[in-house]
Amino acid sequence: MARHGPPWSRVDAQQERDVRELVRGVAGLQDEADPNFQLALNFAWSNFRFHRFLDVNSHKIEKTIEGKAASWKRLTEEFLNAPLPSIKEIKNWSEESEEENDQQPLSREDSGIQVDRTPLEEQDQNRKLDPCISWKADEPDDRSWLEHHVVHQYWTARPSQFPHSLHLHSNLAAVWDQHLYSSDPLYVPDDRVLVTETQVIRETLWLLSGVKKLFIFQLIDGKVTVRNNIIVTHLTHSCLRSVLEQIAAYGQVVFRLQEFIDEVMGHSSESMLPGSGSVPKKSTEAPFRTYQAFMWALYKYFISFKEELAEIEKCIINNDTTITLAIVVDKLAPRLSQLKVLHKVFSTGVAEVPPDTRNVVRASHLLNTLYKAILEYDNVGEASEQTVSLLFSLWVETVRPYLQTVDEWIVHGHLWDGAREFIIQRNKNVPVNHRDFWYATYTLYSVSEKTENEEKMSDNASASSGSDQGPSSRQHTMVSFLKPVLKQIIMAGKSMQLLKNLQCAESTTCQAGARDAERKSLYTLFLESVQSRLRHGEDSTPQVLTEQQATKENLMKMQSIAESHLELDDVHDPLLAINFARMYLEQSDFHEKFAGGDVCVDRSSESVTCQTFELTLRSCLYPHIDKQYLDCCGNLMQTLKKDYRLVEYLQAMRNFFLMEGGDTMYDFYTSIFDKIREKETWQNVSFLNVQLQEAVGQRYPEDSSRLSISFENVDTAKKKLPVHILDGLTLSYKVPWPVDIVISLECQKIYNQVFLLLLQIKWAKYSLDVLLFGELVSTAEKPRLKEGLIHEQDTVAQFGPQKEPVRQQIHRMFLLRVKLMHFVNSLHNYIMTRILHSTGLEFQHQVEEAKDLDQLIKIHYRYLSTIHDRCLLREKVSFVKEAIMKVLNLALMFADGWQAGLGTWRMESIEKMESDFKNCHMFLVTILNKAVCRGSFPHLESLALSLMAGMEQS
Amino acid sequence: VAVAANPNAVRETMDRMLNKLCNAGLDMETPICVRLCEQEINPEALSSVIKELRKATEALKAAENMTS
């Protein structure tokens, strides 16, 4: 009814204005003097004041509902499940004196709903009536009217009359009571509240929808219990109770899951005390996306569940068919078993996790639990198809944030992980240009099943592990479904990040933005593959295409919606809006595709090939990751090789350190050797550098700025031996970033060691090479013949028989020199050709084949260790090296002596030298032969042979 | 009696009701309608008024077009 006449007030003036505005707007009549305007105005006022709209046209309303069934239903359910707004409305329907009684749990549904009208109508009625009509004046009539039309308030504790059903055969309770009364003298019938089966069914449905305030089922201390004094007329009390308790268990599951959902959504639960003072932690922390995704999946499941329940309730209200509790439970049986499965998964995956666990472990544990559950049920076979579908849809939804993180990382190089739930964490302290970037940027978090050691990646190149153990009673592995591709993910991610930095340094224009909008994310690709995999017989390809088009249109629409939402928060970011839109779209698509039982795992065709779910999954997810890995790592390698001249730098290292640039290095070291021979100080760093620059500048001008040499005094004990004079020389080559990831400082050290060895060998060779036969003779001649050039043949002729010992001496020295030269040359050739050259060729070949940066680093390192080994620099074979050094030393001393002149020599010293040399030679040949015969160092064969050839036949 | 408890929920519900049940295709006039509903005007009456007025306006316009 319209208002009864209050006086004309300010409000009414406002109303008048509004109505006029309405008329202007709707009818388009601006001129108030227009007779049409007045007509319209009068029409409007007469309708507003004197209409009668109490009788709602039920047919009309039904039509509307059917047109928009799903969303309306959901709205209804939400509305129905909303807690009571206020006490005031209850007051309207009861006498004021009784307001305390109505603190009894009163669910909204019961108060408004009635038997002969649809509940929606009633809602409308109530809503419409509330603002317009005041009840106070009509209370007593209303109350009786309500009592007639509304359900009897069985929840108010009125001591009831003895329950008696009108139906002839439904009085079991009374009969049983009678029996007890007659058989047990002390039996006292308790006060029971009579409920009808319909009420029981409805309360069951409400319980399963998650309503907390019920009459029959009570929530005490978080546990759902059945009220004790309930009775229906056709069952005994204990029988009813046992039935209801089974239902209560399911209700418990629903509550627990609902609690989880609420918790993750950030609603404050009832258990939190108002004065607890703890700020909900979600507000300051980043959202834990995996849990959120899981919650979302559960939420969607519950929505469909509640829809089903609402359907059943509607049937009950319509009263067209008979519905008993057993029928309802039977109808819901598949759902109830699904609830059981969900509960099991939930309690293992979420509820039993200790509260202080890190997000990383939580996320991986949840995913692992779901995955294992799927595999478990999958193994059962056809009997659990529904369960597998359900679990699979849960898993696919829950894994979405993880895959999105992976996707973002391996495609864009950004690891965005606010809640630190991904198993790979970024070390914030290490910037990209840092020397240790490649190794230290990411930490792989994993807790292995082995007892103490954390599971480290096998090579040091991928990540340094920094993790602690999980609780000792429970060992998890990292996310098991990603394990086979983890290495590729890490490589791709790091390479991508490096690549982004390299590209930024080069300031290339990013067309990536445009490409990105069309690129399908890893998650989308995964879903598509799964779809096409699991829906064998269906024609899925056209679906995908049209979906893409639809997606694009929807994207536009959603983007504008998202933008308008964002603007409410003063955020003007079109890119953000696009991303939101995509997110919503993906979710809605997903919901349509994967709700509950939509995914039919076509086992018949799969069983032919005996493929399990695991294999299916792997073929859907891993290829996409692999592809991205190959793409991006290949891209990185290309960039390094082309733009950063990686191969050229490697060659440069070999040119200078391994003396492949023969002429250049010859110039350099001969200048040093000359100075040493002339016994001048050569340890001057500036002198060394000048020589180096001069030598290098001729043929490799751009490298001359990068090379430098330094000298430091090593321990002098060794210095006594001439061969060790060169120890302490350090050549260094400044390699720019990012090539220094491959050619690191450690690598340079190894290069330097080989360089030193080569230098020593070359020095010995050089010293022997520059000796002139004539010199020796002339110095022998010096005390006797001082004038003129002495020719060798003359020398021999001039020496008479009394010069025999001298001639013999000279001859022996010639022989020794030649032997030494042979030795040194064999060694030199062996090293330069057999070791360095051939290994170098292999290395070059491998570099071309390298697929990613880690591999390249490994190859390089392996190459260096090979050279190091084969140059006999390893500790184990140090005795061999000692022997060689001895011979080299011998050669140097010999050369010294030669130059000093024959006069300084005595026969004994020559003999000693000869015997020393012979011993060393023999020793080496024996050792090498043994090794070669054993087959352990096949590359030494040539050295062994050539040395053997130089041995005397004794 | 004003429903003080949850004015936002009430408004939302009324909005939905207005738009869906009444099917009057309200766009520009929505704020005015909301105000009127708040001022205790029956929404169904309102919607029927709007429908009638629109019908009449269109009839008027059609008539004008024919004569001119």
UniProtKB/TrEMBL annotation, chain B:
Cellular component GO terms held in the UniProt record: centrosome; gamma-tubulin ring complex; interphase microtubule organizing center; spindle
One record GO biological process: microtubule nucleation by interphase microtubule organizing center
Pfam families associated with the record: MOZART1
Family in the record: Belongs to the MOZART1 family.
Keywords: Cytoplasm, Cytoskeleton
Full protein name: Mitotic spindle organizing protein 1
Broad class of the protein's primary localization: cytoplasm
Stretches of the chain forming a coiled coil according to its record: none
InterPro entries: MZT1
Subcellular location: Cytoplasm, Cytoskeleton, Microtubule organizing center
